[in-house]
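Crash report, auto-generated. Payload:
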Amino acid sequence: MSLFAKVSSARVAMRSALLSTTLISTLRAALPATVIPVRTATKKAAGSRTSMRDSAGRRLGVKKQDGTLVKIGDIIVRQRGTRFFPGENCKIGRDHTIYAVEPGYVRIYLDPFHPKRRLIGVALEEHLLLPTPHFAPRVRRFGYAPIERAVDAQAEEARMLKQEALQLPEQLAAEAAKRAQDAARQSVLALQIVAFVELPAEEQTLAGARLLAIENQLRNGRAIADAQSITSFDYHFDIRHEARRAGIAPEETERLSQQYQEMASKVDAAVSFHSLTFDLIPHMSATDMEAAKAQLVEQLRACVKTKKALSKDIDAAVVFSAEERALLKRDYLSEGIAGSVKVFNKDTRKVEVIDAAKLGFVPTL
Amino acid sequence: MSAIIRRYSTVVTKADLWADFSKRSASLGLKDAQLKEALLKGVAATDGPVSITDKAAKMRYASTPGMQPLFETAHTYLQQRAQRTYAAIERIERQISETTDAQVKANLLAQKNKMAVSAEQHNPEVKYTAEYLPENLDMSQAAFRHYAEQKWNNYGKMLLMERLETMSVIPDTMPTLNPEVDVTMEFPCSGASAVVPGAFLHSSTTMKPPTFTIQEFKETDNQLYTILIVNPDTPNVETNGFNTTLHWGLTNVLVSNTDIKVDFSKMCDAFGNNKHEICPYLPPVPEKNLPYQRFAVWVFRQEAAVAVKSARLNNPDFDIREFAQTHGLTAVGAHMWRSKWDRSVSAVREFYNLPKGRIFHPHRL
Amino acid sequence: MTGVNFQFTRGKRNKANRTRSPATERVLTQLKMISQRRKQPKLLQVCQEDHIRHETITTAFKLYRQEINANRAKLLLKQYESIKYAMEDLEQINSYLFHEANTNQKGKRFDLEMRIPTEYPPNQIWLHDYTPAEVAEKK
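Recovered output after restart:
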C-alpha cells in the first residue's frame, strides 16, 4: 500500500467515524433513548358528555344604564361574581344581581374607600350625584302615607299584634295592682305624717303623694336630697302643663306651686326615711347626724369589751347607711368563723376539713 | 429572690411621700384603715383579706409567701420617683406663675397635668381605689381622672361610637365626633336608671326631661356646655323625606370635674323659670306604623357664654350643624336613644297638649 | 360518683395496686377528658389587695428596667455623637486621615479597640507557645 493510499484510507476512516458520531448524537437528541413510538389499536372508553355541551348565554350585563330612571326592585346588573358592588339605595342578590331598593336615577361610580370597586347606586333626585360626600347627611325617602279615612285610621290604631293582645290583660292587672298598692301606701304615709308635722287636712293627701314619690325614688337608689328635688320638679312640671291644657291662669298655677313648696319644705324638715325599712323617721340635720353617729360609735366601743350581742343594735341605728352598718359590724362584731374550712395539712400532706368555729382554728402560712 | 431584694434594697432608701397628706389630697389615700394595713403591710395570716367578706373564704385564703420585702422595695422605689416628679411639678408651677403668654401657659398646664398623673398613678392606694372602689373617685385628682378615662376609652367610648355610626346618627345630625367627655343620661321622673346608648325607650319613660352627667377628663373649672336633643327622623309627608326637630336645648350649663350633674330640676325655680333652656322639652311622640326614630343628644363645649336667637329654632327643619357653627360650639360628647310608637304616646300627646298623631299605612310605598 | 375511693397511688397504676374497678376507671378517664379544667387554665385566685400589691411590684420593676435602658441609650447616643463630631472635625482637618479611618477593612472582624478594657492588662498579651499542663507532664 502506497503512502497515498494509507493517508486516504485514514481520511475515510476518520470521516466515517465523524459521520457516525454526529448521526447518533442527532438521533439521540430527536428521540428519547428508550421510547420507541408504536401506534396501537385504541377504543374510546369514556365519552366527552359534558365537555361537548354548551349552555345558552345567560344574558348577563348592565340592564339599566347610568342616569336611567328605575323603580323599586328593578334589576340594574346581572353578573357572575361582583364586577359591580351595590352602592347607595341598591342591594345585591344571591347570584350577585344588583337591584334598586329606592326609585331614582342609576349612578355608576367608584367607591372612595376602595378605588378599584365600581359601585352601582340610585340617586333619589335627578340632580344628585353619587357618592354622597362622606360627612354629608344621607338623602332618604320617607315612603309612608297616612291613612286618610278616620274610621280606617281608628281601626289601624286599635290593631294589635297577637303577642301584645295576649299580654294586655296581664299588663293591665299588674298596673292596677301597682296603683292600688301605691294608693294604700300613700294613705298610710298621709296618716303617719301628721305625727311628725302639723298639716291642714287638704294638704295631707298631697304630702302623702310627695312622700310616696320620694320613697319610690329612694328605693331606686337615689339620694334623699335628689329624690326631694325631683319630686318637687315633677309636681311643678305637672301642674304647669295641666294649667296650659285646661286654660288656667298662670297666677293660679303660681299660687298652687307656692303652696306646694311651703308644704314640701315643712315636710322635708320634719321627716326622713329609714334606709333599710323605708319607715318614716324624724329628720336630722347633717351636724346632728354626725354627732349621733359619733355617740353610737362610742357606745359600740364600750360594749365590745363586755361582748354584748350588738348585731340588732347596729341594725336599729337609723343614722347609719347600709354600707356604714356593714363596716361597723366588721369592725366591732367579730363573730366566730362559721361552717367548715378546707385546709392543707403540711405534715400529713392531705386536705382536711375542719369545723373552724369549734376548733377556733387560725390558718398559718 | 433574697439576692434580688438585697440588690435593689441597696439602691433605694426610705421615703414616705404617699403617707403624707399635708400637701396631697386626702382622697388619694384609703379611708378604711384595715384595708390600708392589708394593702401596705400584707394580708395578715390570722385575719385574711379585708376585701373578701365570706368568713370561710377569708380563712382559707393563703397569700403568696415572701411578697412583703419585694413590695416594700417596689413601694419605696416608686415613691422616690414620685418625689422627683413632684419636684418637677413645683418647677413647672413656678414657670407658670412667671409666664404671661397664654399658649406657653396652656402647654405648661398640660405638662403639669401629665406629671400629676405619673406622680400618683402607681400609688397602690390610688390604684386600689381606682380599680375596686370606682364610686369613690375624687375627680379633682389627675390620677383618678386618668384611670376613669382609661376605663371609659376601653368600653363606654367605643360603645357610643359604634352606636352612633351603625345607627347613622353620624352623619345624619353632626358630621362626626371625637368624644372627649363621658356623657350619661337618665330619666329620673320615671324612675329609670342610666340609659345605654341606642336603647329603645318607652314613651312614658321619656315623658319628662332627662338629667345628664358630663365627665371631663382634663382639668376644667367653670366650663360651659350646650346640650341639644335632636330627632333627624321627623317625617315630612309633603317632601316625602325627613326633617330634623330640636326637642330640647340647654345652653351655658356649668360643669366642673367634681360637679358633673346637669340636673334640670335644680336649674329651675318652682315656676319652671330658668335661663338655660332655649326651647322647652318636647317628648318623643312617634306615630304608628313608622320605623323607629333616633334621638341624638349632642354635648358641645362653649368658648364663652352664648346668647341664642330663639327665632331660628322655630324652623321646622333644624340645622344643628349651622347652629353649632354660628354659636362657636365644638361637639365633645354625645348620647342617643330610640323611640317607637306605643300605647302611651297618646297620653304623652295629651299631657303636652299636642295634636293627635297620624296613623300610617303599615306598608311602605 | 359517691363511694368511689380516691386514695392516692404512688407510681404507675397497675392490677396489683388497683383500688378502683376498671369500669369506674374508664368512666373517670372519660369524665376527666371532658372536664372544664382541661379546656382552660386554672384561674389564679388572688384577693384584691394582693392583686394590687403584685401590680405594684411588677410596675416598679418595669420602670426600673426602663430607667436603666433609657440611661444606656442616652450614653450610647452621647458616644455616637462625640465620634460623629470628631470625624467631622477630622474630615475638615485632614481628609486623608479621615478616609483612612473610615475605610472598611475587609476580613477584619473584630476591632482591637472593641476589646473590653480591664483594669490590669496582662504584660504578655497572647501565649503563643501555650501547651496544656497535662500534655507537658507527659512529655
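Post-recovery validation: The mean pLDDT of chain C is 83.
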